[in-house]
Amino acid sequence: MSSNRFIILVNPQGGTKRGLEILKQVEPLFREVGADLDIRETEYAGHATEIACKIDLEGITGF
Q1: Which of 59, 10, 11 has its CA nearest to residue 35?
Q2: How far apart are the first and last CA of the chain?
Q3: Which one of 22, 25, 30, 40 has the largest count of C-beta atoms within 10 Å of its C-beta?
Q4: From CA 24, how far away is CA 42, in angstroms rounded?
């Protein structure tokens, strides 16, 4: 298990609706340095908040 663990929330419908496109650009950079990623896609309004409230940040490098 990597010591660099990140949780990434992606909102495909937010803003300019480019969340997934941007993720495709940055994900390889994380993988290149051996980061362990937990990628979660939001599905509805308020979903990111629900996810964030339930996450245990123990051992997480970035969120």
Answers
A1: 59
A2: 17
A3: 30
A4: 16
Query: 50: which 2 tokens?
Result: 């629900």
**What is the total residue count of the chain?**
63
Q: Select from 40, 38, 44 the least CA-distant residue to 13.
A: 44
Per-residue tokens: 12: 């495909």
Q: How many other C-beta atoms can be found within 10 angstroms of the C-beta atom of residue 52?
A: 13
Q: Let me know: does 12 contact 41? Beta carbons within 8 Å.
A: yes
* Torsion sign, CA atoms 54, 5, 40, 19: positive
